Amino acid sequence: MTTRLPHRTISLVDQRAGAIPTRPAQPGSLPVPPARGAASQKGPLVDTFGRPLRDLRISVTDRCNFRCSYCMPKEVFDKDYAYLPQSALLSFEEITRIARQFVAHGVQKIRLTGGEPLLRKNLEVLIAQLADLRTPEGRPLDITLTTNGSLLARKAQALKDAGLRRVTVSLDGLDDTIFKRMNDVDFPVSDVLAGIEAAQAAGLGPIKVNMVVKRGTNDHEIVPMARHFQGSGVVLRFIEYMDVGATNGWRMDEVLPSGELIARLEAALPLVALEASAPGETAQRWGYADPSGKYDPQRGEVGVISSVSQAFCGECNRARLSTEGQLYLCLFASQGYDLRSVVRSAGGDAELAGAIRRIWQGRSDRYSLLRASLPPEAQSSGARRVEMSYIGG
Ligand code: SAM
Ligand code: SF4
Ligand code: SF4
After folding, report:
1. Which residue of 57, 68, 211, 386 sits with most ligand 2 atoms within 8 Å of its CB, as the best mutation to test the pocket?
2. Is position 3 within any domain?
3. Domain range holding 21?
4. For ligand 3, what atom is nearest to the CA of residue 307?
5. CATH code, 298
6. N or C: which end of the chain has fewer CB within 10 A?
7. What are the tens digits of pLDDT across the range 282-323?
8. What does pTM read for this prediction?
9. Dist. CA 327–CA 126, nearest whole Å
10. CA–CA gap between residue 232 and residue 65 (Å, rounded)
11. Is 235 helix (H, G, I), strand (E, B) or coil?
12. Residue 1 domain-assigned?
């Protein structure tokens, strides 16, 4: 018996204002639930709220060549920061073995992320292995990757040749001064735009561009970014600045709720609401309107990801595998399940399959939905949350 989760719009109350950046806590592991007879092996796999497993995000490195203040602030991720040693990382073979079991249990889409995934050596080899996997119905997977774009111009064609379908590129503005301040490593906008062009030329489309919006930092870049990508075939998505991890000093007053963002955008470029493209889709879609007020596909669309102001936990079908093989059931979880020890044990793929099944069947995560009703002391438990750079976005 499962209970369906309600949709909820969350009123933005500042409960964690001015959190001071701290070193992230070392994430601990949850025990994999033990097997209890054959009954749990039958039927479609759903969690305690009836949510299926469809989307697997795999972090391939915890390192990055950017220091975005909202993700890996320089003062925490400095030269003394203890990144994972090579021996702790899942090998490509281990990742593929784990992914194969996820696909057998319903996963249709795999997103490679990080840290910066293009920093992982020979990533094309992993992509080629994942591209060989098939769903139980015999379909290939939708394999995609999120990148800061810094190495994309060089690597786009090799990624496409290996079997990558699409890319999402992160870009927080077109103004070089603002962008350099946000990536904090002086990386220029022009190189990211060159990466987007190379990805388009290689056929890695439709390309999505993610822009994290921080009120007072880059919100004046919303309309210029929209104008730049309108009609280009690139889908721009605005992401609410999230309280992920414990190091970014998140403050609610720096969040620009998507409702306000759309109102601002609509004043410059008329929009019409579009249907979700797939169940569990995180972005709300808006199409650019023609002078008669109808959606004009030539002008394209934008999306908003309202992780703070709207809870979309009810349809959340995503699992996240960290670089060292910890399985997280929510972006805001503080602990994962240690799949690396399962994949390295003598139990083989049958044990791995059983572990994935039991972990998902026990899932009750719904952080965004609960956030509004959490008492203040639980809100500040962000200090124990896993970092975004460790499990990816
Ligand atoms: N390095 C790659 C990149 O930046 O695209 C992939 C990893 S990054 C963690 C994945 C996505 O998470 C990026 O689009 C990034 O902008 C987003 N992100 C990171 N921290 C965030 C935060 N605090 N709030 C909202 N989005 C965030
Ligand atoms: Fe690196 Fe991506 Fe995090 Fe920026 S958002 S610091 S590019 S992992
Ligand atoms: Fe999914 Fe957790 Fe985000 Fe809810 S808060 S949508 S469960 S990742």
Report:
1. 68
2. no
3. 8-391
4. 3
5. 3.20.20.70
6. N
7. 899 999 999 999 999 999 999 999 988 887 899 999 999 999
8. 0.92
9. 19
10. 28
11. strand
12. no
